[in-house]
Write a structure and sequence with these properties.
Elements (H helix, E strand, L loop, with lengths): L2 H16 L1 H4 L7 H8 L9 E5 L7 H10 L4 E5 L3 H10 L4 E3 L6 H8 L6 E4 L9 H11 L5 E7 L6 H13 L2 E4 L10 E7 L7
Parallel strand pairs: 1-2, 1-4, 2-3, 4-5
Antiparallel strand pairs: 5-7, 6-7
The protein binds S-adenosylmethionine.
Length: about 200
């Protein structure tokens, strides 16, 4: 294993010990979960993709590929840990990361002159956060009409009240919603949840 992978994993683990609720996982997600997060995402020139809670970039690798495939797509990653942002900027020099809180998404987009995003892909440990519903509301407000919010939910937390609240938020707040097959090759296995914002063109 490359020494940079070991040191990035160690940084992730140390941040988890210091702040277990907000880091929310002992290990970064696998590439297969990242690929499921971007599956069938329809992007066109000028679209903006926002990633919430990038950590050390395990989902970012898949998102970067999806962004690269379509010329003129712009990316903003929001990660509150400055040390993670340093790692991210080294791993993905072509992408833009803000060391900030996702609660400030609208201001961060405005500062860059970006339009409302086509997709917000979240690696946040939403069910551990006290403001889970407010974060989902904020994402829904920030998204372009017809835009998508995606996150993942681990198999072991599926029956918990907080995970139930998250699924209810998807049902009640989005115009339509769905989930992927279980990604067994992630540790722990997880589903990707998708919520689609109402598109004005549907009226
Ligand atoms: C479970 S880790 C996910 C890392 C990576 N996306 C993955 O799936 O492996 C969650 C990340 O969200 C970040 N985070 C938690 N709350 C946040 C907030 N309010 N704003 C921005 N980042 C936040 C944490 O610092 C952490 O890096």
């Amino acid at each position: 294993m490359a020494s940079s992978t070991v040191s990035t994993g160690w940084l992730f683990f140390r941040k988890f010990l210091r702040n277990p609720r907000e880091v929310g996982a002992l290990l970064p997600s696998t590439r297969s979960l990242g690929d499921e997060m971007v599956r069938d995402l329809s992007l066109t020139r000028g679209d903006v993709i926002v990633e919430y809670g990038c950590g050390t970039g395990s989902l970012t690798a898949s998102i970067a590929q999806a962004v690269q495939r379509v010329p003129g797509v712009r990316y903003l990653g929001i990660e509150r840990e400055a040390a993670f942002c340093d790692v991210l900027s080294r791993r993905f020099p072509q992408l833009d990361f803000a060391a900030d809180r996702v609660e400030n998404v609208q201001a961060l987009l405005a500062a860059r002159g970006f339009p409302a995003p086509r997709a917000i892909l979240s690696g946040l440990p939403l069910i551990l956060l006290p403001n889970m519903e407010a974060i989902v509301d904020g994402a829904l407000e920030a998204l372009a009409p017809g835009g998508e919010f995606r996150t993942f939910s681990y198999i072991q937390s599926w029956p918990t009240p907080a995970a139930f609240r998250l699924r209810r938020a998807f049902r009640e707040k989005f115009a339509s919603h769905g989930r992927s097959p279980l990604v067994w090759s992630n540790f722990p296995p997880a589903w990707v949840l998708r919520g689609m914002k109402h598109d004005d063109l549907d009226d």
